[in-house]
Amino acid sequence: MPPSDFANANIDEIVAQLTTEEAIQLIAGVGFWHTYAVPRLGVPSIKVSDGPNGVRGNNFFMGTPAKALPSSTALGATFDTELIKTVGLKLLASEAKLRAASVLLAPTCNIQRNPRGGRAFESFSEDPHHSGMIAASYVKGVQSGGIATTIKHFVGNDKENDRMAYDSIISSRALREIYLMPFMLAQKYAQPWSYMTAYNRVNGTHLSENPDILTGILREDWGFDGLIMSDWFGVYSVDHSINAGLDLEMPGTNKWRSLDLVTRSIGSRKIARGTVLERARKVLELVQRCCKEGGEILDGDGVERTHEGPEDTALLRSVAAESIVLLKNDNGILPFKSTSFQKKKVAIVGGNAKQVVLSGGGSAALKPSYFVSPYDGIVNALKELGEDVEVTYSEGATTYQQTPTLDYEILTTDGRRGWLGTWHSHKSDGSMEVDKPIKEDQYIDETRCFFSAEYPKGLTRRWTLKLKGYLKASAEDEMWEFGLTSAGRAKLYIDSEVVIDNWTTQRRGDAFFGSGSEEERGRFLKKKGVKHEVSVEFCNVRAPAPESGDLDELVMDSNPAVRLGGTPVSSPEELISSAVHLAKEADLVIAVVGINADWETEGYDRSTLKLPGLSDELIDKVAEVNKNVIVVTQAGSPVLMPWAYKVPAIVHAWYLGNATGDAIADVLFGKVNPSAKLSLTFPKREEDVPSFGHFEASEGGKVWYAEDLYVGYKHYHHRKIEPLFAYGYGLSYTTFSLADLQLSKPTINRNSKNFSLTASLSVTNTGSITGSEVVQLYVALPQPGSKNTNNAEFPHPLLQLRSFAKVKDLEPGKTRKVEVTLDKNAVSYWDDNLPRFKKAKGRYDYGGVWAVAEGEYKVWVGTSSRLEDLALEGSFVVDKGQGFEWNGL
């Protein structure tokens, strides 16, 4: 039957007809991105695709150009649930359809426990309520377009080092109130069609094998009836994961759930055939739902496409600008006006100004359909002003960890950007000698080639790729430094001279999901006007690493890759000196600094919050010679800013995707009045971070969540530490006042376990231009010892965000009334001393319940988590006899 017919198939009948072999094949993927099809029963295969900041499609290597969204931390900074829903529908669901993908592997809504976490940029916030509500909007938007979401990584995946093995030791209160809460809210308000388990363990058990969390919490407590899949290669057993409730193992390569192993497990009674059928049913149900909601994908030709209409471009630019946070603006130096630039000279400095800084690294990476650098965005905006402005530029300080890719520096013989590749099989499976080409002169427009499983059919298990192109000619003789990284082995030749040997021996590194080498570097003098021939020979067999004692020459069946970078050689002193010279002569300096996907990536954690290289020194020195320095920072999570008090303006731009430069310019030049708020606390010192000292794995791989409930701003309140910039903080080019907080009397129904309360206030634009403001409502639960409380054994954070609303486009002098509703989540805490009824066990188990305490609740409303920014205060009371316990959603 065609896929459209499967939308109406009877799943009970399909399950009843499944052979054991078919059921086993259904519960593991096929290849990297597909589920198993059962043609005789009309069951189609569906395709999944990585997110969360865009839809990549099948291929890491030579992927289909895509719309790259701002990072999730940037999306969280908008505090705009309607905007996120629109992004989900118009930019993500529509893009998934162009990729012929029925399932988006997103959103990520883990908690930002420590900004050094390698994937911190992929999650929305340090606050569980904030993260959960943005995630719910994301899910609603995508799924309203007929595309399944896969919310991830469930749960406690808050760091990357040792991610397959470390054990997150989390108290039951912190697990429920902090780390599970975003998922719980997304489930309550948006019902994702699928979940993805995290790689790590929680309290001793890997998530893919954890029945207490997968079955007990997700399915029984929350009532989830969709599919649970593993992260890629995140299954570590056959029987444990199947019995725990994991429906689908991904991917289908190198899988545990082979026909042989699962059949043997059934035969040994490690697994019941009925359990395998239960898992297969969930796969069938998801496939059917995708057929019903987005069946046109499955009825199509399966070809990936790109389409970039003017509405898409405008929305990408808009959401990027809406996520930018204005952190400092002394004396109203921003926004720039046309009168600001009459007969002026502007110096643009910084290592991020011209680099392609699109997003963090790892599975979030994709090929952008276009990209505007900060430098180009600012220059284009200056041109639009029509003023005669002289712009000068200096890199000032490098920000890369690996040498920048050469995507725009290598040309083919016919002048196209890129090079040509020829693929060779080896003469025999055990030989390193190449045979005749399998595929010749493939055009390749990227110098970071991560093949995953995307290489020509017919290659032997060991294979070689030879890449050749020509370096753009230099205007002068110029010494260049090149860098070569490989998951496999590689050599770089320039004009037939070996410049880098990463072939004979290697140093193991963290690149390419931990399977790559360290970058090896070499120098070559580019001659004036000469197009030097550059070639790389790559083989998918890695070399020995004698320094580490690793002499294995493994064939890279998964994740073979090679990366070539390069840059002109300049001494750090020369770079800073050049920038200082330009700054001294300029009327205005715009410094664009930050980090990139080298530093902030899946696979490993950042080693420091400090800006790379001499970036801090660069800002210090230009600020010494010019008082008009505007700093733009790019990072998916906080960076330290020891120079913050020396410059008049700071703009935090996160990772902004395709429209980076245009969005930054829109804010700097006042086309967009900034309204975003920090989704993360920016500390003054790394030692101030809540998990400092117990973020790294210790004691046999255990990671102790010793800060417990005091994550993010809650820690700063608790310890009375002043951050550099508080969670929820952000400036505007106008001003606002909040007044008239009114709290309704709580409506409480102990029988139905419900609570509701309405808070209203007025917001007035007291400035001179139209702007938007985020209203943030924080609740303080009754503390031990407070009057009329039954909460004596449970201390709570001083304040907890429980609602927020964005007041958009408020005109000068205008006032708007805002109403928000609080439900039982706003007044509940997890009581792990009280018994609960476990459905599966049919008995009382001391696992804990949610509790609403009697007593007085304080409410603060304002524009950030800083106590001085919480202008309005109120309270309400849960009377004696009105407290209650509850479970579920």
From TrEMBL:
Its EC number is 3.2.1.21. SMART domains: Fn3_like (SM01217). It is an enzyme of class 3 (hydrolase). It catalyses: Hydrolysis of terminal, non-reducing beta-D-glucosyl residues with release of beta-D-glucose. One of its GO terms (molecular function) is beta-glucosidase activity. The keyword Glycoprotein does not apply. GO terms for biological process: glucan catabolic process. Residues 414-580 form the PA14 domain. Pathway: Glycan metabolism; cellulose degradation. Keywords: Carbohydrate metabolism, Glycosidase, Hydrolase, Polysaccharide degradation. Belongs to the glycosyl hydrolase 3 family. This is beta-glucosidase. It comes from Marasmius oreades.
